[in-house]
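#structure-requests
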Amino acid sequence: MKQKLAEYLFRKNTYTYVVLDGASVPDLPVKLYEMRPPHICLYRGELPPDLVYVAPYLVQILPDLEFTNWLFAECWGKHWGIFAQSRLTMTGMRKHFRSLLTVYDETGKPLLFRYYDPRVFLTYVPTCGAAELELFFGKVNYYFAESNDATALQQYNFSKTELTKTTLDINGK
């Protein structure tokens, strides 16, 4: 499975990122500190200790890094986050992903949008119109999320007005 994930997620001329949900990944800040992949919290400023462990983190993943190997071995079936490919640097991706964190209800009340949970992502993206998809994708070429039953990797891309979903086999069959 790790080989298939690497095959799908690493392409030339693009960066690969994962947005990880600290509330789902046990001791994520500790893993980030120990393995030191390029990463940044999507929340701004100094966080209280309890929030550090539940915050979303943007991580750039690269083939054969210790963190990438650990992630591929441990994440599957646990709804830890979503992957994205883009030509944007980490700074540009953080700005983009931060812009998606807050949504507003019908009364104008701000709400936290946990789009980085694959279950939320897979439910939300297919319901979007072209304008929403344009905003959600921005400069992201592809999004990837594990399927709800963890049997496949779902790939999404958006071109002009069309959302394309491709189911990718992760078992090497």
